[in-house]
Specification:
globular; mainly alpha; single chain; transmembrane helix
């Protein structure tokens, strides 16, 4: 087992929470209206500065107590949402242009299944040691390297998606620095990302049951909400 350097872990936590919180705040802006870049920059700056505050004055401290560290995958998807808002893609999607895919249903299903298996294992209903396998000295790095190579090859061949880029970043983060926790699962999955996947699948199911038009292939981050337990 190889754990990340504590200094890198703290720095990652503050930066990652700054990105995730900024994306959630930006999601409150109506999707049909273009978000001014000045407002977006101000939100990003305010989020980063607040997370950089020392000790308990930083929201990252309290968020870390409740949720530990955001996964690299969640951070990557939030960056996709912020980038889309910066380029005005979200507003264009509401006006009838091509939709912005952040969480396709296939990705949401994979995350939901993996997360459910991990959490059932963690509370003892499965007791197979799935989570602790992510600390493995051989298996976890090997899986990460294979996944990294697969994502990179897909992107080089022009077959990669936005989500492939986010996954590639998460796997590289784990492979090079063992962030965020030294566990492979924590690099690609966390409670917030799992909740987002469940919300995406639930909304798609409800729309289908109601006979409404399908969501397409994704649920934009603007529609992602977190309920505090």
């Amino acid at each position: 087992m190889s754990l990340p350097d504590l200094a890198w872990q703290i720095a990652y936590g503050r930066l990652a929470w700054a990105i995730v919180v900024a994306a959630m705040l930006v999601a409150l802006w109506p999707a049909a209206r273009r978000l001014p870049r000045g407002v977006l920059a101000a939100v990003l700056a305010a989020s980063a500065l607040s997370m950089a505050l020392p000790g308990e004055a930083s929201p990252a401290y309290w968020l870390g107590l409740g949720f530990q560290y955001p996964s690299g995958m969640l951070v990557g998807l939030c960056l996709l949402g912020l980038r889309a808002r910066w380029q005005g893609e979200a507003a264009g999607a509401q006006a009838g242009a091509q939709s912005v895919d952040f969480m396709p249903l296939s990705v949401a299903a994979a995350i939901a299944i993996a997360g459910t298996a991990l959490y059932l294992d963690a509370i003892g209903w499965l007791s197979q040691g799935y989570y602790y396998a992510g600390f493995g000295p051989v298996g976890a790095p090997t899986v990460a390297l294979i996944g990294t190579a697969g994502c990179a090859l897909a992107l080089l061949r022009g077959r990669g998606s936005r989500q492939n880029g986010a996954l590639l970043g998460a796997l590289l983060l784990f492979t090079l620095l063992r962030l965020p926790s030294g566990n492979l699962w924590d690099a690609v999955l966390d409670p917030l990302l799992w909740g987002w996947a469940l919300v995406t699948l639930a909304r798609a199911a409800l729309r289908r049951l109601a006979g409404a038009p399908a969501l397409g292939k994704a649920a934009p981050i603007e529609q992602f909400s977190i309920s505090k337990e």
